[in-house]
Specification:
Strand order of the largest sheet of chain A: 1-2-3-4-5-6-7-8
Oligomer: homodimer
Mean pLDDT of chain A: 96
Largest interface: A-B, 40 and 39 residues
Low-confidence stretches of chain A: none
Helix content of chain A: 40-55%
Largest sheet of chain A: 8 strands, parallel, barrel
């Protein structure tokens, strides 16, 4: 490929940092963020040099009860506009749309009338053709698009190859390597990054990484992917995200050498919003049950339930997981 | 060197896992562990396949007030024997001795009369000759020895080379790569591992790694070093250790493919001892202030004080650190 490995001192202008705090964090609190939290996060991200801020999901209001979730599960354009106005900043606005859970033909309007810049299509490997349909619809409407292929640690290697080829031939701008279960080690991320980059280079696309922290490797896996040539990097403030959470923004921005990035605004945001959120009893972040599902390459839902139930019998939980291996 | 890089599926018989829970964890609670904690940890380590268990420091009773510390600051042979008897197990017993803080000539008796198998000499780069004196004294008395060169992230590269040469020519069995400030990234650990291994191979010695978790990289750095050929791996249960703590034993043993290692006994130990310890208000582990000293390659003492003071003004703290850069 002739790609030169990046070094610690590299300044890599094509890096894009994607803040997923509201979207992945919304899975912790059903998207019930107060308006000041969202507004302050928007301001902090701009000041920190973050490239994209993801506001949440564009979920179907026919499938999901709007009374059971905060507004960022649905990301109405008007709600985003109430925060960002016309968003006259360098930071772009992103929303995630799940295959099969989004009425994209109806709910996604033309880009010229929307504050949203990027739609991120999330798909499992068996719904790639449906993902491509959504990608093409969004592209036609004028949006940037990326695609997350989820749960690949459970997928057949040949299926991943086939999926990458299909996506390479689509209009998508960036293909994400996603470690849904936090089960991947850096040397696996390194190899998969090379695989994704090979297809991406062939078709003129970028590659991104979305990591989870089950084994305290979200940051390590993110910078390993970066070293290989991955350029879209997902992070959340203080790891806020489902279960064990994500790559922490403050670690990532503290690491990147691009002079536009700074962590002070994030530190202030953490003081003002994350500390009280934790003190109010909202629970997320690395803990033993997430490690165990990560080691076993399993969905974290059992670990989330274990944590919610206030259980501490880690060994019994491990034995239960092994029963379902 | 002809060294073959290890892979994820490798089973590497020469790996030695060193449990430092009492020694590094003692820096959190001044070594006041109750006897049941120590006895249960000893049993859990044996059942988990841990190779060495470090009981604490052999600190000088002339320099340190025995009333201000628990007994594991001093590690009298009789106190170890009260836990391990004659230690008729496969797990060896280790104690750390700091250069300049240990009356080694008087306090370290001959191996044949002691339950201790290994002395780990801890030194800064400017006291290597004193470290060598201690190594030779311990070796002559019949002990295995290892050496930790601390704070190398602040050291001149040529000084590290000179230190490694001196230690290579000593009787020491293993030289530790130590990330005292948790400032090293995996690619730096990779390069330093190669440097240490080159000298170690030349002189027939092993290399170890002792990582800190300031940037959530303790585990990632440990397995990166392992991949390069490092074989002595330090860990503590649930990261228990000064400030942000260490590489968690449960992550490390969950990763290693050597069939002798298992995590169930550690999970039971965590349930019984670590959960109540945390609930009682003992504080350690990754947090923002440790990240900040790690990024800046500074001693964690300011972050420890910040945490003790219950401060949450992370941005002000960061500005203070920059003033002392």
């Amino acid at each position: 490929m002739g790609r030169k490995e990046r070094t610690l001192m590299s300044y890599t202008p094509e890096i894009k940092v994607m803040d997923c705090t509201l979207r992945d964090g919304g899975l912790v609190n059903n998207f019930f963020f107060d308006d000041e939290f969202v507004k302050d996060l928007y301001e902090a991200n701009i000041r920190s040099g973050v490239d994209y801020m993801e506001f949440g999901y564009k979920a179907s209001k026919e499938l999901f009860d709007v009374k059971k979730f905060g507004k960022w599960k649905f990301c109405d354009d008007k709600d985003i506009r109430a925060v960002v106005g016309d968003n006259k900043t360098d930071m772009k606005i992103s929303v995630m749309a799940d295959v099969g859970r989004c009425d994209f033909k109806k709910d996604i309007i033309n880009k010229k009338d929307s504050p949203i810049d990027l739609y991120r299509i999330a798909t499992y490997i068996n719904t790639i053709p449906a993902a491509v349909e959504m990608i093409e619809d969004c592209a036609k409407k004028g949006y940037e698009t990326t695609v997350n292929i989820m749960a690949i640690s459970k997928s057949n290697e040949l299926d991943i190859d086939a999926a990458l080829e299909l996506l390479g031939q689509s209009s998508v701008g960036c293909i994400y390597l996603v470690d849904s279960y936090g089960s991947l080690y850096p040397e696996q991320v390194s190899r998969l990054s090379d695989k994704y980059l090979e297809v991406a280079d062939k078709y003129g696309k970028k590659v991104g990484i979305h990591a989870h922290n089950n084994q305290q490797l979200a940051f390590a896996n993110t910078i390993e992917a970066l070293r290989r040539g991955v350029s879209y990097l997902d992070a959340t403030v203080s790891s806020l995200g489902r279960g064990c959470g994500n790559c922490p923004s403050e670690l990532l921005l503290g690491f990147l050498k691009n002079p536009k990035y700074r962590i002070n605004p994030l530190l202030k945001f953490i003081e003002k919003h994350i500390v009280p959120m934790k003190e109010s009893g909202v629970v997320w972040g690395y803990d033993v049950p997430y490690l165990l599902t990560g080691i076993l390459n399993q969905h974290p839902k059992t670990a989330i339930q274990f944590t919610r139930d206030g259980r501490k019998d880690y060994n019994d939980f491990y034995l239960e997981l092994l029963d379902n291996f």
